[in-house]
Amino acid sequence: MENPVYIEYTFRVAPLQPASDILIAELGEVGFESFVENEIGVLAYIQKQEWSTDILDDVTILDNPNFKITHTIQEIEQENWNATWEQNFEPILVEQTCMIRAPFHKKSSATYDIVIEPKMSFGTGHHETTHMMVQHLLELDLVNRVVLDMGSGTGVLAILSALKGATVVDAIDIDNWCYLNAMENVKRNKVSFIAVYEGDASLLKNQEYDLIIANINRNILLEDIPKYVRCLKQEGILLLSGFYLEDLDLVNKKCSEQGLQFEKNFEKNKWVAAKYVF
Q1: How far apart are alpha carbons 3 and 22 in whole angstroms?
Q2: N or C: which terminus of the chain carries fewer CB neighbours within 10 A?
């Protein structure tokens, strides 16, 4: 496959937080697919074919007087991407149990040592939502469970589920580059029984899962929660993230309407990862 050309935005953000998190969330809504946070702000990437000159018109934080955000743009070839990640990607240790690292990092003695080549995919463990979803998974007994990872990105949550004993794991992402990257990472972590699919919730037909993980964004979650519930076994678990604390009541209401019971949530920098039981 021909390497895609990306548009790279370099955003200078002051103060950094919470502006950087809000900026990343809003950029994700308009089509940006990968981000690198640094000491001055955010690098954001979108495929050139998805880009337009008015792409930032609906990014409202740029007009917020409480923050100063400026940007520059340039084209970047895909082959330059790995060098960018190697400069910015540090290993992540969650709960002293799960290490998420790149191939160029030293092997870890953690119980779950996951090797991720992130490329242009979301899900390195750096973002609060992925980190909290890992926390949830570490608390669950997944031996012999059937698991679905929606919006799987790099596949890191699907991989952790497999390493924790799940015997059937499906991973679905709508982005082709995420699909290809997850395939690579599944092979790299020797959990090749994970089935990776390119698509969205329309792929869910007659499947049944003990656990469904969905780390996407609020609007997609609210639309797809009924589809998840139709595939959830009795007493099954639904983990949701990709939204802010201020949206939790709205998500709780939607889940309650579908017969789900809220059990707990983690919160980090106003991001939330919530657990529901069917």
Answers
A1: 30
A2: N
Q: What is the dihedral of CA 188, 189, 195, 196, to 10 degrees?
A: -50
Rounded CA separation 237/229 (Å):
10
Above 80 in pLDDT, residue 152?
yes
Domains of the chain with bracketed CATH: 5-84 (3.30.70.980), 126-277 (3.40.50.150)
Of residues 151, 172, 154, 180, the one with CA closest to residue 3: 180
Q: Whole-number mean pLDDT of the chain?
A: 89
Residue tagged 């678990």 (tokens): 237
Instruction: Classify burial at 147, counting beta carbons within 10 Å of its beta carbon; exposed 0-12, middle 13-18, buried 19 or more.
Output: buried
Distance CA 251, CA 261 (A): 11
CA distance 46 to 61: 18
Q: How far apart are CA 251 and CA 200, in angstroms?
A: 19
What's the pTM value of the predicted model, to 2 decimals?
Answer: 0.75
For residue 205, the one-letter residue type is K
Confidence of residue 1 (pLDDT cuts 50, 70, 90): very low
Structure tokens at 230: 């139709």
Q: Residue for token digits 């998190």?
A: 21
* Segment 196-231, tens digit of pLDDT: 999 999 999 889 999 999 998 888 899 999 999 999
Interatomic CA distance for residues 271 and 209, integer angstroms: 26
Q: For 30-80, where are the alpha helices, taking DSSP H only?
A: none
Q: Is 44 exposed, middle or buried (0-12, 13-18, 19+ CB in 10 A)?
A: buried
Distance CA 92, CA 160 (A): 14
Beta-carbon contacts of 204 under 8 Å, excluding residues fewer than 6 positions away, are 148, 227, 228, 230, 231
Residue with tokens 């949701």: 240
| Residue 250 · residue 225 · CB < 8 Å | no
